[in-house]
Amino acid sequence: MKRLLLATVALAALSVPAMSADLATKYPVKAVAVVPVFSWTGFYIGANAGYGGDKFTLDEVNTYYGDYYSSESRSVNSSGFFVGGQIGYNYQFANNVVVGVETDLQWTNIEGKYTESYANYWGGLSNYSSGASVDYFGTIRARLGYAFDRFLPYITGGAAYGKTAYDISNFYVGEGYDVWGGSASSTKWGWTIGAGVEYAITNNWTFKTEYLYVDLGSTDFSYFGTYYDGSTNFNDIYSGSVDTKFHTLKAGVNYKF
Q1: Cα–Cα distance between 47 and 7 in angstroms, integer?
Q2: Using one digit for the tens of pLDDT, what is the confidence trace for 84-130?
Q3: What φ, ψ does residue 156 adopt, rounded to 5°?
Q4: Alpha carbons 214 and 246: distance in angstroms, whole number
Q5: Of 105, 107, 100, 109, residue with least CA distance to 46
Q6: Which neighbouring-strand residues pair with 232?
Q7: Within 162-227, where are the H helices?
Q8: Residue ranges with strand state E in the chain
Q9: b/e map of 215-243 (b: 16 or more CB within 10 Å)?
Q10: What is the three-class DSSP state of 242?
């Protein structure tokens, strides 16, 4: 009887580890996966395209033959497309505030032109044309935004630059003739301000839309004119200026390193 009792206890002791191993096999402990949080910190490079325009203000000052003076100002509607690229850097703080700097350059055909045919005081018909354009523009801006994970709204502002051009012409044939005109171009510096939103499609590719107001200031110009009254030639140099300001709306993609 004592031997039977000892054998039973030994068998029970041997079966406990086997049951524990069996339970561990049937009910494993699963590890919790940690999802990484997206960060906007890093350098990026990208491309953009958009549309812009507003009004160019043209001011002309004319002195005819030393005894006639006129000053005229007009606004012409401007519009055009542009395409370009950008490069920049963002840094995201622990509180999700994002600061950055960006520079871009766009080639554009934004332009505005005014044409008119009218009867002048000499009894003939004059054909007048004047216009301004922007050949390219760029910006150097700071950005400040707040990250909602992969969604980043921001405001931006800084310096702007661009090449502006101007041309003017008038042609009259009647009692004699009156011809004057000229063209000029200049690289100007100004300022810009705007806002935008950017969304991270993947960890490397982002898409953005952005509005900017660009003010390139005033460009001075001069042009030459000659008038023949049938017996005498009169030559004069005229002057003027054009204010170049426009709105832009663009879309772009960035590759984040």
Answers
A1: 83
A2: 999 999 999 999 999 999 999 999 999 998 888 777 666 667 787 88
A3: -155, 155
A4: 5
A5: 105
A6: none
A7: none
A8: 42-64, 68-92, 97-119, 125-146, 151-174, 176-200, 205-228, 233-256
A9: bbbebebebebebeeeeeeeebebebbbb
A10: strand
